[in-house]
Amino acid sequence: MREKGLLIVLSGPSGVGKGTVRKEIFARPHTAFEYSISMTTRKPREGEVNGVDYFFKTREEFEGLIKQDKLLEYAEFVGNYYGTPVDYVRETLEAGKDVFLEIEVQGARQVREKFPEGLFIFLAPPSLSELQSRIVTRGTETAEVIQRRMTAAKEEIEMMDLYDYVVENDTVAAACDRIGAIVIAEHCRRERVSARYKKMLEEN
Ligand SMILES: Nc1nc2c(ncn2[C@@H]2O[C@H](COP(=O)(O)OP(=O)(O)O)[C@@H](O)[C@H]2O)c(=O)[nH]1
Ligand SMILES: Nc1ncnc2c1ncn2[C@@H]1O[C@H](COP(=O)(O)OP(=O)(O)O)[C@@H](O)[C@H]1O
């Protein structure tokens, strides 16, 4: 039987650089993870494409998905719903491929309950002031939303101890290198005790 893929969850406060780091990871030539595109009720930002950045949904459509149990997890974040399509994740893991989720912390906590064997990585800012300046520099939010995101960020940072690893996003390249190294190490660690090796030993 083929090994199941690894579920990799990258989370952390808004504005820490999750999207930037994720894009860089997928731009690197040797990345073999499958990115799970989320559903959201947020309006597309300039340049965002439906089915590439997100599947953009109305509130009614999103609530329909919740009722039909089509989401592995979902959360309401700063007034919008965000959620992970469960069928895509399960099918891709069953096919033996690693799935990469980039989600906020409430969602990551729900995934932890359903997939405790997942690999949970918290992306941390070098400091709170650096976090604020990244949200401001991005320029996509109003002053009021920035303030709400900063308040949320402080609570989110308190949850970092629940993760398997904390990666500081000082530079994007270094953060991506660390995440790549963690995934390689986790594969080695898990395969050491995997069913495949146990079976080989039994057969000999
Ligand atoms: N729980 C959950 N959070 C998500 C999902 N997709 C994206 N997010 C998170 O929702 C938050 C807001 O995303 P977005 O509006 O794109 O803004 P940005 O990531 O802060 O630029 C971010 O922390 C994302 O990581 C999802 O499927 N589930
Ligand atoms: N390592 C970094 N150093 C400096 N700026 C960064 C770094 N990582 C991300 N940024 C910037 O911070 C802002 C927020 O990043 P983003 O990826 O949108 O965060 P998130 O997805 O966690 O909300 C963006 O303007 C991005 O260019």
Automatic annotation (TrEMBL):
<keyword id="KW-0963">Cytoplasm</keyword>
<dbReference type="InterPro" id="IPR008145">
    <property type="entry name" value="GK/Ca_channel_bsu"/>
</dbReference>
<dbReference type="InterPro" id="IPR008144">
    <property type="entry name" value="Guanylate_kin-like_dom"/>
</dbReference>
<dbReference type="GO" id="GO:0004385">
    <property type="term" value="F:GMP kinase activity"/>
</dbReference>
<keyword id="KW-0067">ATP-binding</keyword>
<dbReference type="InterPro" id="IPR027417">
    <property type="entry name" value="P-loop_NTPase"/>
</dbReference>
<comment type="similarity">
    <text>Belongs to the guanylate kinase family.</text>
</comment>
<feature type="binding site">
    <location>
        <begin position="12"/>
        <end position="19"/>
    </location>
    <ligand>
        <name>ATP</name>
    </ligand>
</feature>
<feature type="domain" description="Guanylate kinase-like">
    <location>
        <begin position="5"/>
        <end position="184"/>
    </location>
</feature>
<keyword id="KW-0547">Nucleotide-binding</keyword>
<dbReference type="GO" id="GO:0005829">
    <property type="term" value="C:cytosol"/>
</dbReference>
<comment type="function">
    <text>Essential for recycling GMP and indirectly, cGMP.</text>
</comment>
<protein>
    <recommendedName>
        <fullName>Guanylate kinase</fullName>
        <ecNumber>2.7.4.8</ecNumber>
    </recommendedName>
</protein>
<keyword id="KW-0808">Transferase</keyword>
<keyword id="KW-0418">Kinase</keyword>
<dbReference type="GO" id="GO:0005524">
    <property type="term" value="F:ATP binding"/>
</dbReference>
<dbReference type="InterPro" id="IPR017665">
    <property type="entry name" value="Guanylate_kinase"/>
</dbReference>
<dbReference type="Pfam" id="PF00625">
    <property type="entry name" value="Guanylate_kin"/>
</dbReference>
<dbReference type="InterPro" id="IPR020590">
    <property type="entry name" value="Guanylate_kinase_CS"/>
</dbReference>
